[in-house]
Structure formats: C-alpha cells, structure tokens
Write a structure and sequence with these properties.
The protein is α/β, with parallel strands linked by helices. Helices cover about 40% and strands about 15% of the residues. It folds into 3 domains: about 5-220, Alpha-Beta Complex (Amidase signature (AS) enzymes); about 240-280 and about 335-425, no CATH class; about 285-335, no CATH class.
C-alpha cells in the first residue's frame, strides 16, 4: 500500500488512478490510516466515518474513477450542506442536523466523481470563537479559522484537498498558519447555495491543497459557468507584481517580514516587483468591511440568538449585539463605500499581474484561545477580489504565507502568477 506522500497532489493521485497504479479504495485506506494515527492530536474532523469513506471509494472504483476528480475524497467544512453526512455549523445547537439536499458546490463535486471524505471542523457559525482543532506543525498553536479543520486536514495528510469558506480571513489565514495553499476565488465564482451564511456580501467558498494547481483544479470543479480554468497556464511574459508590505491596519512582525522579503528575493531577478502602499484615503477600509459583515451577521443570526443566546459562543453573541446597534443608514453608506473601493482598487492594480502582501501579520500564534488576526485578508475580502496564500518559508518552525490578490474576474491570471511564484520560490513544507 502506498505511503500518503507517494501521491502528494490531486494531479499525481489522478494520474496513478488512470494508470492503474492504485485504486480509490487503496488511497482511502492510506488516508484513513493517517487520520487514525494523528486525528486525536489534531482534531480536524467534525465527522468522519471510515465505513462511509470505504463505501464511497468502492463506488468510485466500480465507476472506474470517472470524472475530473474521480476517486478523490475531499474534506468539506461543516457549514456546507451534505445530504449523506451531518452538518452542524460548528455548534451543539445543531448537533446531528442532516440537510435534505447537498449544497450546490457539493453537487458539483460529486458530478466530477469525487466524494465527501468527511466534515471538517469549523469555528461556531464560521466566526471567531476557536474550535478544538490544533495546528499540525505545533499542537500548542492555533490552526487559524474559521476553516480550521479544512486547512489542518490537508496539512496533516488526511486528504489531498478540502473545501472551506471565507468571509474575512477564513481561508487565507488558516492556509498560511498550516503551510498549505488556500485559494479564495472572486466573490460569487463558486455558488454559495446550501452554505450557512454569515455575511452574504462577503461569504465565499474556497479551496485548500498542497499546490496552486490542485487548489485551482478543485475550485474549477466547484465554480459555475466555467469561471475558473481547471489547468493553470504559467505566464509567458515577465510578471509585473506589486509588493504591499503592510496594510494601514496590519503590519507583519519582523520574522514574518524577513521571511517574505527572502522569498521575494528568489523571484526578483525574473519578475518586476514594484513597492506600493494603500493610499491614506482608504485607511478606513477595514472599518467599512466590519460594518457590513457585522450588520449582516446580526441579521442572519439574530433570530437564533433570541432563542438560544445562552448556548451561543461569546464572540458570536458580541458580534450580533454590535451588528444590531448599527443603524441602516450607516450600513447603506458602507455598501456605497465598498463599491467606490472596488472601482478604485481595480484601477489601482490593473497594470499588475498580482499584488503580493503578507497573508498574516505573524506565524500561527501560540495558544488555542483565538484563531489569530485576519486583518491582512480584510481588504481583498471587502473588494471580493480573488486571493491565494502560498507557503514560502518557516519562521521559528512555523509556516509563513505569501498572499497574492488581483481584481475581480482575474482568477486565471492570478492563479498563473501564484503558480509562477510557487515554482520559483520552491518551498515544499511538511509538518
């Protein structure tokens, strides 16, 4: 039976299946062994049933692993509806909840021949209260959130890829902390029907994998209207990249900045890198994003809070209370400001293949009492821009992520720039 690292990517596993070098059941057994060996320490899964995994892999083998992702078991965040597995939104309030239908993205996943390996841990209602998952690199550090389990499951070798969601920093941050690739597509590129909402203006389905190519492949399967190409084509020209070393509201610590600068030096001879800074006029963009997010979160969850306040986690309760205090006029003004920001930053970045920035202000913080700081992701979430985090270095034994972003709709060129950087930086971490 092959070792989990024999097929480190979806592409490698698919090639092995097509050539008859392995079967979906054999690959699943390897992954189940890995889960059995490490899950107790990591806590990546809200629900995983070995019998279910074996049955699904057997069905894939019987179908000759047909489809773009035939035979692949994919981790799915526990706010995304799955008809054959529980979906509890990270809270005991909904323990055992079984949706009647799959989310739209899960229907697409199954149509491509893949299956749901299990449901990965999410923070409650995909907000800031930490869940039980630990960072595979160091168990005393947070894995980030809210897609905690999806990032950790990929980093730990439980699955080759997983699905998460981002409202503020919930894909990019845990990907950076756990040393995997995290990809948040353009807002709306992947349908969110059947995904528990928090802030409909920002909620975005994203992917986790060990490479940019894999993250793109999984996203392409989930996307509507073929909005994301399944194969990343590297740019033939010399990339022109903006370098945004800090945000007005978030600055990387010295160790993170040194690691990122060293990564940029490895690509600097082959790319044009232009330092940029967020104009002072947009220094309040973080507050705009929070106003919209918290107001919408209070509207989505306010009714549940009225019935179940004592069982709601503290950060969620506080967010709902804050959102209820935001008057409608202020919310509408924030939406108008967002549209202005989208127009400005789309033009500001038009001449670049991508803008590079820190994915997080630091490596994964010690302790499990928080999910870390999402504020390096806030601008791109506000704008609905596609963004990725790729691991580029270690600092004090923990991964550092480089974030890339581009204007809405430029997912394919962004993925191309990210794959170009990934290949030249050449960092392949293993916890």
């Amino acid at each position: 039976m092959p070792d989990p690292r024999t097929y480190p990517t979806l592409a490698a596993a698919r090639t092995a299946l097509e050539r008859g070098e392995t079967r979906a059941r054999a690959l699943a057994e390897v992954q189940l062994e890995r889960v059995a060996a490490t899950e107790r320490d990591i806590g990546a899964w809200a629900h995983v049933d070995p019998g279910h995994v074996r049955d699904e892999a057997r069905r894939a083998d019987d179908a000759h692993c047909a489809g773009m992702l035939g035979g692949m078991g994919i981790g799915v965040k526990d706010i995304i509806a799955t008809a054959d597995l529980p979906t509890a939104f990270g809270t005991d309030i909904h323990a055992g909840h079984r949706p009647e239908h799959d989310a739209a993205c899960i229907a697409r996943l199954r149509a491509a021949g893949a299956y749901v390996f299990g449901k990965t841990v999410t923070t409650p209602f995909a907000f800031m209260d930490p869940a039980r998952t630990r960072n595979p690199w160091h168990r005393a550090h947070t894995p980030g959130g809210s897609s905690s389990g999806s990032a950790a499951a990929v980093a730990a070798g439980h699955v080759l890829a997983a699905i998460g969601t981002q409202t503020n920093g919930s894909v990019i941050r845990p990907a950076a902390y756990c040393g995997v690739v995290g990809y948040k597509p353009t807002i709306g590129a992947i349908p969110v029907g059947g995904v528990h909402p928090f802030s409909p203006t920002f909620d975005t389905v994203g992917t986790f994998a060990h490479s940019v190519a894999d993250a793109a492949l999984l996203a392409s399967v989930l996307a509507q209207n073929r909005g994301i190409a399944p194969k990343v084509v590297l740019p033939e020209h010399r990339p022109r990249l903006a370098w945004l070393a800090k945000f007005p509201w978030a600055e990387p610590d010295s160790a993170t900045l040194r690691a990122l600068v060293a990564a940029l030096e490895r690509i600097g001879d082959d790319a044009q890198i232009v330092p940029v800074a967020v104009p002072d006029a947009w220094s309040g963009a973080k507050a705009v994003q929070r106003t919209i997010m918290i107001k919408e979160g209070s509207e989505v969850l306010g009714g549940l809070q009225a019935r179940e306040r004592a069982r709601m986690p503290p950060a969620v309760n506080a967010a709902i209370d804050e959102g209820c205090a935001i008057v409608d006029e202020r919310y509408r003004e924030a939406l108008v400001e967002r549209e202005r920001a989208i127009a400005f930053f789309s033009g500001w970045l038009d001449e670049f293949d991508a803008v590079l920035s820190p994915a997080t202000p630091s490596t994964a913080p010690a302790g499990l009492g928080s999910t870390g700081d999402p504020s390096c992701c806030t601008l791109w979430s506000l704008l609905g821009f596609p963004a990725l985090s790729i691991p580029v270095a270690l600092a004090d034994g923990l991964p550092v992520g480089l974030q890339l972003a581009a204007p809405q709709g430029r997912d394919d060129s962004l993925l191309a720039a990210a794959a170009w950087c990934e290949a030249r930086i050449g960092f392949t971490p293993k916890p």
